[in-house]
Amino acid sequence: MAGRFPQRPTAAPVRAAGPVPAPRTRSLALPGGADLGLTLGPLRRGPADPAFRAVRDGSFWRACRTPGGPGTLRVTARDGVAEAQAWGEGAEWLLDRLPALLGTEDDPAAFTPRHKLLAAVHRRRPGLRLVRTGLVLESLIPSVLEQKVTTDEAYRAWRLLVRKYGEPAPGPAPDGLYVMPDARAWTLIPSWEWHRAGVDDRRAATVLRACRAARRMEEAADMDPADARRRLELVPGVGPWTSAEVVQRSHGAPDEVTTGDYHLPGIVGWALAGDRTADDAAMLDLLAPYAGQRHRAARLILLSGRIPPRRAPRMTPGNIAAL
Length: 323
Fold this sequence. Notes:
- The chain is α+β, with helices and mostly antiparallel strands.
- Helices cover 39% and strands 11% of the residues.
- The chain has 15 helices and seven strands.
- The chain has helices at residues 36-40, 91-96, 98-101, 116-124, 137-145, 151-165, 183-187, 191-196, 201-212, 214-219, 225-232, 240-250, 264-273, 280-287, 294-304, and strands at residues 24-29, 52-54, 60-66, 69-78, 81-87, 167-168, 178-179.
- The strands form two sheets. Strands 1-5-4-3-2 form a five-stranded antiparallel β-sheet. Strands 6-7 form a two-stranded antiparallel ribbon.
- A hairpin with a 2-residue loop joins strand 4 and strand 5.
- Helix 4 crosses helix 15, helix 5 packs antiparallel against helix 9 and helix 13 crosses helix 14.
- The longest helix has 15 residues, at 151-165.
- 46% of the residues are buried.
């Protein structure tokens, strides 16, 4: 499920040496109460994500591989205005799509709470906007890595592979910020490196298939969410869970709720009906009053922090690299 809770910002050691390239810049008025942390949070793949950084000065850094090339984006917000700086070949593309990224094209007013819990969270979290990146592979690859494993395992794999096969983010980016590999570079990663990163053959093969059809995958960004999901699911190994996780980020899709998740049905069931044993069908029944806004409703439930008490041990991480 995209974006559960905000992460604690980290320090931002900045690269030294060499002249600092001049950035492209853009200012953007934000909707009232818009919260950059809540909006951009779903793009962060763990506290050590090599492609995303939230720092203590209130800025958010993002390294992307855009259609124009690698780019780095820094965004801050003050007094209702977002100030953005961008570097690299993809700078212009990133700034052109800044409004969608920051959720200014999202319409939270379309959501009508029908449960007391959701009414309360909606009131407490007026700054939630749904992010729209316009990029597919950057969400598809880490989502595939998250299939059927713990989040820690998936975050570790993403971190190791991006740092080893990606490239340092352009501009004066925080140390350790990387642009993910391009599609061809993903296909050239040796099998033993997938193994060392803890990625099994099934997930690795799914990533390779998606990257070999990279152009077709990225075309999905211009489709409506339902058609985009059908396009993504043509790739063997990409199912409803993965396609939903992608379009929630690439399209800012307010209705594309995640099914097939290990935890989400129980969380929704517990929050709305006191039923921790809810399955996908029960979850969808509970979310039916929010048709058109089911993903937003699920996000608000996760932000409420109301989750069922744990009764079983956590899923044990695997160790493929030790096999």
